[in-house]
Amino acid sequence: MKYVLSFLLHFCLLHVVCAQDTPVYKKSNAPVNDRVKDLLQRMTPEEKFWQLFMIPGDLGKDSTQYKNGLFGFQVNTVQQQHGAAAQLLSYAAGQTGKQTLEKINSIQKYFVEQTRLGIPIIAFDEALHGLVRSEATAFPQAIALAATWDTTMMNSVAAAIANETRARGIRHILSPVVNLATDVRWGRTEETYGEDPFLTSAMGVAFVKAFEQRGVATNPKHFAVNHGEGGRDSYPIHYNERLLEETYLVPFKAVIQKAGARSIMTAYNSLDGSPCSANDWLLNKKLRKDWGFKGFVLSDAGATGGANVLHFTAADYAEAGKKSVENGLDVIFQTAYEHHTLFDKYFLDKSMDPAVIDSAVGRVLRAKFELGLFEKPYASASDVETWSREQHRSISKEAAIRSMVLLKNEKQILPLNKSIKKIALIGVDAVEGRLGGYSGPGNDIISIRKGIQEKIPNSTITYAPGPGREHKTWTFVESKFLSTIQDGKKKEWSLW
Question: Are residues 431 and 379 in the same domain?
């Protein structure tokens, strides 16, 4: 009997010691606030900075360069432009869904098992109207989905995209666009839900809910007012607070308070003279204090440096990063690994308020805890609802049908009669089968010409490209020919 008691006592003591040795942040039953606080006090300045830095790519040839961790990767995506201010990315279709899942899990394995604290990454991607990946279903563009005026349909579309997204191990999407399209000359009009604050809010809420309920964080964008006079993209904005509150800010407030969006992306433009990525009124007073937003804020790709290369409110990239985080930004989104050297100076030399950095890092860690990444860092296709490509294609077709608005139908020409002998198709869109901006390659695309040929096989179709589509490459003045006068001295000028 005494041996049994001795064994039980030894077992209990061992259990207590092991429990005491386990860090609080690794205890799944501990409150999230306690886990965040415990992990923060264990982190070095370098580890904190890297939780505030996100990029496209993967581990590359030398994984040790990420020994201090990382917010997350956008896999199978590379920098398209050059320089620190690069914005455009090349969304290579890349691997199959299964291969993408395996790649993300292998990347995650490094961060969980080979970094000091084992903080998992968040794999993120674009999913405006379908995941921008091979084998993913393409749905009607956002402006078309809005034309359905059907929030139930929108929720079904978003649920389908969310399932395809999570099945690949992706847990954060840089969508939807809830900016108001108040000027059709703006190049991103197709990405929006139109000009009406009510409709945009309703569609945005239906979209965001479907993702957040399935464990995929959303990122409504671009906060706020992403176009200016004449429809110019990312132009300086000088709107008063009443106009903002009654129009442009309405959808953002709705997706946060009614749908639970976990992150927000700032816009490239400035608002009232201050970059949106470093705007205290917008990010701290309005977003967090007035609306109660608890998630994290990230910049658009390359936008943090816009303070010094576009708005001229910072002397260099390091100061732009410092001012941004001090004024409410959490995560710096850049397009290449090497850009970290442009921003990390003030994070590492202790010249920034540690409490500000901890607040930003804490919001990122909270999201990772809430998404369950510490307990289940590796994704599985079994984590999502059962679905088939045919089911999602059917949803896409139904959404497309409901999005169409026939304004005029002289002599009942539509639907086309199968007895028609000759049909003329003019314009390159008739043969290209384009899916819209932020689209993946699609599955089994059928062009307008091919579709008509299949439906009316006995007709003769004559095609002409018309004016076609021309892509012009502009030649810019090289920076070596540019200079400014500062303090009476000539200073060379550079975009980067």
Answer: no
Angle between the 151-166 and 389-403 helix axes, to the nearest 10 degrees?
A: 150
DSSP state of 234: T
Integer angstrom CA distances of residue 331 from 59, 63, 104, 334: 19, 21, 20, 10
Instruction: Look at residues 326, 361, 383 and tell me which one is the last residue of a structural domain.
Output: 383
b/e sequence 167-180, b meaning 16+ C-beta within 10 Å: bbbbbbbbbbbbbb
Dihedral over alpha carbons 288, 249, 304, 236 (to 10 degrees): -140
Instruction: Please check whether residue 346 is in contact with residue 359, taking contact to mean a CB–CB distance below 8 angstroms.
Output: no
Q: What is the pLDDT of residues 441-464, one digit of tens each?
A: 999 999 999 999 999 999 999 999
CA 323/CA 277 separation, integer angstroms? 9
Could you write out the DSSP letters of every residue in 141-156? -HHHHHHTT-HHHHHH
Domain housing 430: 419-464
Whether 494 is in a domain gets the answer no
Angstrom distance (rounded) from CA 448 to CA 445? 10
Residues of the chain scoring pLDDT < 50: 13-14, 17-18, 495-496
